[in-house]
Amino acid sequence: MKFNLGLGSRAWRVSWERVAAAAAGPRAGGGALGGRTQRVSSPRPGRRGSRLSRALPLCLSSGGGGARALPDCAGPSPGHPGARQLAGPRAMEQTYGEVNQLGGVFVNGRPLPNAIRLRIVELAQLGIRPCDISRQLRVSHGCVSKILARYNETGSILPGAIGGSKPRVTTPNVVKHIRDYKQGDPGIFAWEIRDRLLADGVCDKYNVPSVSSISRILRNKIGSLAQPGPYEASKQPPSQPTLPYNHIYQYPYPTPVSPTGTKMGSHPGVPGTAGHVSIPRSWPSAHSVSNILGIRTFMEQTGALAGSEGTTYSPKMEDWAGVNRPTFPATPTVNGLEKPALEADIKYTQSASTLSAVGGFLPACAYPPSNQHGVYSAPGGGYLAPGPPWPPAQGPPLAPPGAGVTVHGGELAAAMTFKHPSREGSLPARAPRPRTPSVAYTDCPSRPRPPRGTWRERQADPGAQVFAAAPASGARRTRGQAARGGTPRQPPGPALPLASLNFGF
DNA sequence: TTCGTTACGGTTGAA
DNA sequence: AGTTCAACCGTAACG
Fold first, then answer.
1. Which of A114, A178, A242, A460 has its CA 20 to 30 A from that of A380?
2. Low complexity composition bias: which ranges (predicted)?
3. What is the structure's pLDDT at A144?
4. What architecture (CATH level 2) is domain A172-212?
5. What span, in angstroms and rounded, lies between the C-alpha atoms of A388 and A393?
6. Half-sphere exposure for A200 (CA within 13 Å, toward CB)
7. Quick one: which residue's CA is nearest to C5's C1'?
8. Do A99-154 and A172-212 share a fold?
9. CA(A226)–C1'(B7) in Å?
């Protein structure tokens, strides 16, 4: 049993715990959920119960045929003191998912499943307001806003890549060149070295060391490296690539499907489910949007939404074949995307064709794929709004007048926009996003911020920069301006005839 | 009521 | 093997 419905959701229970925590002192509670701990929400547990019971149909399977071992993998990583570490039955309840105020299920720290992300974008394209999308999908409006903003910005629904480290820029080759420059001109300044590294193509603007780094190299390394050490002699690559990690991060979609279409070892608990977001980029799809949108439908068909009795899955993503970045199989790629990898959404029990139209939302874009899509422990249905069927059978309250939810492929194609690189214009140089703690950065893409061209994005697809828009009009708005809805909505990207899109296959 | 913003606790993966 | 760090995440709440 994942959630203790009798007590209400974990999220709400935590809110109550925060009351005591707040009384005990600031941040004493350290709630596991996001949100500000110093504020205490006003939970209404009485109402929550019934809502949750609708919200969590599939999370309630108490093992059944799939009684799975929860402990070792769930939730917090070992070694993270701040992570949840609960013992006993309660840990079993609280390890895998939480319920937000809307009754939606989420996994803290993990991206929403792509199917949900896709649906957010699709609904928005159909003219449904974000607030309605938020309610319908039971995703926080901040998240909806973020996903839509990102989609408008990049054309991608995918989350960013999580984890990892920025590769060192002071590669042996760079050090060697610095040394050469210094030896050639002992009076050279660090900034001159930097310019020369750029001019000589040793580095590009993304990975050129800072002046301070060069100074440090000059101070710490060059002196002691007058003679090339064994490391450099032996490990110096024949031709140092400008972006040395390109080969690693170039669309590292792991794939659960072999190039022949054969399922690769999916976890025994994931019946026929691809282990990764991987959706064919065939577009337009022959499938109706009701199928595309009808995630619930396929969930129901597969039983995932109905409680998943007997549906077992590994709570640990790492246990699922093909979802981990380091295990990228060498598969043919199309536009840098592994074609077989684009065939199903992770963890969603669905046919590969169900979301075949999703390709239009997936990059080739500024966002590098990662291994993180759909790492939810629960089958995707857990994230879908339970309760009234979705889409509603009749005049959906969320649908714009005259816009039925059941839209067929052609209509969807018209309804959805797709940002084409050539229409987006080229990007200005992207500076790596600073992470200075003193800078109150936000994840919200709508805030003016350095473009999302992180090193990883560039490694994934340097040419994809064109997908990312320039920082939104450069107009930094004050918080007061941004609030109250005074900001005009960013228009959707230009809709392109699908025929004009070159997917390369 | 809507929505942009942001603090927060969390996960992840390379170093 | 365990830790650190810097990416990212979604939620909750403010304004």
1. A460
2. 472-486
3. 95
4. Orthogonal Bundle (1.10)
5. 9
6. 16
7. A165
8. yes
9. 49
- The structure tokens listed for A444 are 């919200």
Amino acid at A431: A
Nucleotides of B under 7 A from a protein CB: 1-15
Q: Is the CB of A479 under 7 A from strand C?
A: yes
**H/E run at residue A233:** helix A230-235
A26 touches strand C (CB under 7 A): no
Q: How does DSSP assign A446-504, residue by residue?
A: TS--S-S--HHHHHH-GGGGGGSPPSGGG-PPPHHHHGGG-SPPPPPPPP--GGG----
pTM across the whole model:
0.45
Q: What is the domain class of A99-154 according to CATH?
A: mainly alpha
Asked if strand B contacts A436 at the CB level, meaning under 7 A, the answer is: no
d(CA A209, CA A52): 52
pLDDT tens digits, A197-223:
888 888 877 677 777 778 777 777 666
Which 72-111 positions of A have CB less than 7 A from strand C? 78-80, 100-102, 104, 106, 108-111
Q: Is the CB of A33 under 7 A from strand B?
A: yes
CB-based contact A467:A365 (threshold 8 Å): yes
Q: Measured between alpha carbons, how far is A480 from A22 in angstroms, rounded to an integer?
A: 28
Q: Is the CB of A38 under 7 A from strand B?
A: yes
Q: Is A344 helix (H, G, I), strand (E, B) or coil?
A: strand
Is residue A164's beta carbon less than 7 angstroms from any atom in nucleic acid strand C? yes
Residue spans per domain, chain A: 99-154, 172-212
